[in-house]
Write a structure and sequence with these properties.
This protein is of the alpha+beta class. Helix content is 22%, strand content 37%. It has six helices and 21 strands. A nine-stranded mixed sheet has the order 3-1-2-4-9-8-7-6-5. A hairpin with a 5-residue loop joins strand 14 and strand 15 (164-167).
Length: 280
Amino acid sequence: MPLVRFYKYCNFTIASEICMPEGFICSDTPDVWIRQQAFDADFGSLGVRGMRFHALPETLYYSVDGVARYLVRNGNEVLIDPAAGTDEDSIRTFLLTTVLASLLLQRNFLVLNGGVANIDGEGVAFLGDSCVGKSTLMAALHQKGVPVFSDEFCAVTLDEQGSAMAWQGYPTISIWDDSLRNLGWNPDHLRTLRPSIHKFTLPINSKPMQPIPLTRLVELRVTNQPLSWSCLNQKEALTMLLKHSYRQRFLRGMGLTNLNFQLTSALSKQALFRRVNRPW
């Protein structure tokens, strides 16, 4: 019988057969189960299919060669079929990113590519494409004593008044070796994300926190121009939010495009938006 641990994540409880070392242990009744077991991945021609995924209503199949196959269903179940000879760190890496983000989408969250800092009790999200320095910025803020709410992605819901609320993510920052050293940290005492990968797990929070109002969003962009910033109007803000919505093809396959538009549209009308361009 596998060991099952219970973790608090966003507004629900996870019962997991995969250890989440930095996760918040709890004893609540689980809303989501994460199990290791084989499963059938033949979903026919429905939905949207890619090289490593198949997305259809209430279902997301995701495969990583040499690591595992993942199946996310109904917003309350994750099945993991590990590859022969794989390791738990590698399984956990994709579980805590693509798989959990897909689970949040199925539970009607808005999921954005970026991290969130808690500045004076309000959420400030930093969005952007891969390799623009989002995690390095979050680590620098953490180093300065600014509470970092999330790193891998920004999970958002609307409260009863329609106000956007940002939820705490998994309490780590995933950051490359050179970025850590540039910030003055020695990575030798940190857990590597996966074997043979020079990316590390930096713990950032020791206790769960309640959601906070998401009031400001900043898009980070890398250009060949000098450092500059600008304000975005509502139309530009909506375009930016749609661009940085997590996995557009997942959304389309799972039938969540309309919901995603509704959530991004609501957010675009109430928050302040900025764009920062920085040189390479």
